[in-house]
Design brief:
The chain has 186 residues and is α+β, with helices and mostly antiparallel strands. It has four helices and eight strands. The strands form two sheets. A four-stranded antiparallel β-sheet has the order 1-5-7-8. Strands 2-3-4-6 form a four-stranded mixed β-sheet, with no helix packed on it. It is elongated and about 60 Å long. It starts with 9 loop residues before the first helix and ends with a helix. 15% of the residues are buried.
Length: 186
């Protein structure tokens, strides 16, 4: 006796649905605006670009009077801001804004403090609105990728052919790249 082939594989559909639900809640979870504390600091070294894909920061720096490491989160800057910030050198006095809850960590070694705003000579290199918008765009891009993989899992679960799934995958990647280059949709 031949075993009947089921019309779908339930575990792929379950995985796809879990990914969709997770990304939906992740996209709808809006964080509250932190209460910001502004103050001036003097750089004790040049601002360093942080390398590595697993690092949560694009830049880090230390200051003369605080022991904590200040970080600018990955995805919070656009290209113009990257160039301006990377040109800041040792001895520059900058105005930064941090969450007031991080104030007690300023004099603790091995602590990271997130920068929400950064100004130098009255030029805003990073505003809170830019920070929020750029981080939101980054999160949307990541969640779109997760939704794509959830869709592919569901399509595999309902036995859509490999050729069609491949076309959908590469089509979505191409659309994503074009939207990123033209800054469309997010």
């Amino acid at each position: 006796m031949k075993k009947k082939k089921t019309l779908f594989t339930w575990y792929y559909i379950l995985i796809g649905l879990v990914i969709f639900v997770w990304t939906f809640f992740n996209l709808s979870n809006q964080k509250n605006k932190p209460t910001l504390r502004q103050f001036n600091v003097q750089l004790s070294s040049d601002i360093e670009s942080v390398e590595g894909s697993r690092n949560p920061a694009d830049y880090k720096f230390y200051t003369e009077n605080e022991q904590a490491r200040f970080i600018i989160l990955d995805g919070s800057l656009n290209n113009d801001q990257n160039e301006n910030i990377s040109n800041l050198k040792k001895g520059s006095v900058i105005e930064i804004s941090i969450d007031t809850l991080d104030s007690d960590r300023l004099n603790s070694k091995n602590q990271e403090v997130i920068i929400y705003e950064l100004k130098h000579n009255n030029n805003a290199f990073l505003s809170f609105e830019d920070f929020k918008n750029n981080r939101n765009k980054r999160n949307v891009r990541i969640n779109i990728f997760f939704m794509l993989f959830g869709l592919l899992a569901i399509l595999k679960g309902i036995h859509i052919s490999n050729k069609i799934r491949t076309i959908i995958f590469f089509g979505a990647i191409i659309l994503f790249i074009v939207a990123r280059m033209l800054d469309i949709g997010y």
